[in-house]
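Lab notebook, bench 4. The sequencing result for the construct came back, and we need a structural model before the next group meeting so we can plan mutations. Quick request posted to the team channel:

Model the 3D structure of this chain.
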Amino acid sequence: MTAIASVCVYCGSSRGANPRHAEAARELGAQLAGHGMRLVYGGGRIGLMGVVADAVLAVGGQVIGVIPEHLQVQERGHRGVTELRVVASMHERKNLMFELSDAFVILPGGFGTLDEAFEMLTWRQLRLHDKPILFLNTDGYWTPFDKLVEHFIAEGFVRKNNRRLFAMVDAVEDVVPTLLRQPAPAVADSVERL
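Done. Here's the predicted structure in token form:
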């Protein structure tokens, strides 16, 4: 695989009920920065978003936040990041985050996190990109999702080989090595066919 310079992290604008999720976000931010990888994320100062961004910044890493104008107050746009890009819509946010990133890591989150993850999975399934996608399954958070994918396969709506669209790891220290082991992209990094 070519070098991964930028990693997009999708995660909640809440910290959630389990404090281990914030610990994992903090550890991930430090590891990404330690490997010289720039963080691309949703631009907020709150929740797991703020935790991962602050962790990258704390060790001198680079952070690009992408936030829609209408969420700057709700998600408290993070003015301390290396670069904060304010966009007009959620669609523009997701597209720009895609363009700026070489890989995607999904931490715990809710509907918005699932929306972002599913769009990247769908684009990869449609061969619009072949960037690595990885779920960090802290304390089994994504295990129900993994079972849902098995259900999709068993019911004939997803092909078995689509399991290769994403990887899942349980430990933060496995994130970067797993991303780096992914095969080189087989298609151009373009979403123009959408």
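The first strand starts at residue 6 and ends at 10.
Will bring this to the meeting.
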